[in-house]
Amino acid sequence: MKLLGKKIRLLRHQRGWSQEDVAKQLDISIPAFSKIETGITDVNLSRLEQISALFEMSVVQLLTYNDPEQEIKNASDLEVANKKLHDRDAEVIELQKKVIELYEEIRNSKSFG
């Protein structure tokens, strides 16, 4: 449930709401809401529906929500990793060519010797 709490905190921050703002809208105490965000308190389905409605999304959307900024960072990291992999592949191909050339040189020198 800690992941859910992080998602709720992120959504709250994106809207510029304080814990007090959300706690009032959920009709719970600030410490009770804080425990939801930190994952100390498990959220029942009723509370989950209430929270998702507050953020104008379905329960499924809330549970599967990912930070768009984090997704962009992950995509960027993936692009960097793909480029490094491509560069390494090119290096391996060049090394393979050199090995083949050396093999050919050795084979040719033995046939002339």
TrEMBL record:
Domain of life: Bacteria
Protein name: Transcriptional regulator
GO molecular function, one term: DNA binding
Organism: Pelobium manganitolerans
PANTHER family hit by this protein: DNA-BIDING PHAGE PROTEIN (PTHR46558:SF4), TRACRIPTIONAL REGULATORY PROTEIN-RELATED-RELATED (PTHR46558)
SMART domains noted in UniProt: HTH_XRE (SM00530)
Keyword NADP: no
Record keywords: DNA-binding
InterPro entries linked: Cro/C1-type_HTH (IPR001387), Lambda_DNA-bd_dom_sf (IPR010982)
Domain (HTH cro/C1-type) ranges: 8-62
UniProt xrefs under SUPFAM superfamilies: lambda repressor-like DNA-binding domains
